[in-house]
TrEMBL record:
KW Acetylation (keyword) present: no
Keywords per UniProt: DNA-binding, Transcription, Transcription regulation
InterPro entries the record matches: HTH_MarR-typ, MarR/SlyA-like, Tscrpt_reg_MarR-type_CS, WH-like_DNA-bd_sf, WH_DNA-bd_sf
Pfam families referenced in this protein's UniProt entry, alphabetically: MarR_2
SMART domains cross-referenced by the UniProt entry: HTH_MARR (SM00347)
Organism lineage string: Bacteria, Bacillati, Actinomycetota, Actinomycetes, Pseudonocardiales
Secretion signal, residue range per the UniProt entry: none
Annotated ranges, domain HTH marR-type: 1-133
UniProt superkingdom: Bacteria
Source organism: Lentzea indica
TM helices/strands, residue ranges: none
UniProt protein name: MarR family transcriptional regulator
Keyword Ligase: no
Length: 139
């Protein structure tokens, strides 16, 4: 199996479990919406930046932000650096989902560590952080 697939399968399982936990806690959000929502900077992010970061078209990002706004997860506010532009910013409702997601992530990491061992989990994290140095354009 190639390395891309070996990285993708556990990531997909992690995403699915975190989304299930967030939805079970009453935060009704889809995977596509969550992928955009996770990329909103605390100070706000322009739609074009969100689209690029989520690797979707500007139209798709706009559609997803419209849904998130309607559900109360984000708001559009004026960009202080350019009065004509708008920023997408997370709301308190969205911030409320963060502890739920973080708790599920902690459970997953603990399960993975139990399965592969503390040393291997530490090595895995270190290797992935090093790969992030050369693969993450948003670092």
């Amino acid at each position: 199996m190639n390395i891309g697939l070996l990285l993708f399968i556990p990531n997909r399982a992690l995403e699915n479990r975190v989304l299930a936990a967030v939805n079970a806690a009453g935060f009704d959000v889809t995977q596509a919406q969550a992928r955009v929502l996770m990329r909103v900077d605390p100070e706000g992010t322009r739609l074009t930046v969100l689209a690029e970061a989520a690797q979707v078209t500007k139209q798709t990002a706009g559609f997803l932000v419209d849904q998130l706004e309607k559900a109360g997860f984000v708001e559009r506010v004026p960009d202080p650096s350019d009065g004509r532009a708008r920023l997408v910013r997370v709301t308190e409702k969205a911030k409320g989902a963060v502890p739920v997601a973080n708790a599920e992530l902690a459970r997953i990491e603990a399960e993975w560590e139990q399965h592969i061992g503390k040393r291997r989990m530490s090595q895995l994290r270190e290797a992935l952080e090093m790969l992030g140095e050369i693969t993450d354009p948003y670092r």
